[in-house]
Write a structure and sequence with these properties.
By secondary structure, this protein is α/β, with parallel strands linked by helices. The chain has a single domain, classed as 3-Layer(aba) Sandwich (Rossmann fold). Helix content is about 50%, strand content about 15%.
Length: about 180
């Protein structure tokens, strides 16, 4: 059964790498019968790279954030849509401002350090040259401050399957059925 009548705008999904943004986003897009946009994939495609790791080996973080902002602005024109945002998208000031201006529903996914470590085994993405603990110490202070400034609905992703999490998110959105984005 389609739930498309519950959204007419975008659902933006935020969280650190391995919290489940893409996995849950794909499930939600099917449930709401709307497009799914993975901003990391769009940015890689726009820059001509196969994956995030390859892109980050060849460009600066500033270049990535600029391309990410362009991809976000374009994605925000797609209504309805479920959009998985890269873990550091809020670090880019233009992206941060665009998100605040948008009327998109904002969802933040959180996970504990052990959960993130178990999910990212075999992961070939940026910042993996340092330990996850070190990465979080370097990135989380600014990210958490900006994540907390969002008008978001937060979900803990430890000990819950992507399907169960999607069910919780759908239930929350249905309860807020006046949401039109």
């Amino acid at each position: 059964m389609s739930l498309s009548h519950h959204i007419s705008g975008q659902i933006l999904i935020f969280g650190h790498r391995a919290t489940g943004k893409s996995t849950v986003g794909k499930i939600l897009s099917k449930r709401f019968s709307c497009p799914f946009v993975d901003l990391d994939e769009v940015v890689c495609q726009n820059l001509g790279y196969l994956d995030v790791f390859s892109a980050w080996e060849n460009i600066t973080e500033a270049d990535w954030r600029e391309a990410e902002s362009v991809a976000l602005l374009k994605a925000l024109q797609t209504k309805p849509a479920v959009i998985a945002c890269g873990g550091g998208i809020l670090e880019g000031d233009s992206s941060y401002k665009a998100i605040h201006k948008s009327e998109a529903m904002q969802i933040v996914l959180w996970a504990s350090l052990p959960t993130l470590e178990s999910r990212r085994k075999g992961d070939r993405r940026p910042l993996l040259a340092v330990s996850l603990k070190e990465e979080l110490e370097n990135t989380l202070p600014k990210r958490v401050c900006r994540l907390k400034s969002l008008n978001s609905i937060d979900f803990q992703t430890d000990a819950i399957s992507p399907e169960e999490l999607a069910n919780k998110i759908v239930k929350t959105i249905k309860a807020k059925s006046t949401y039109k984005g």
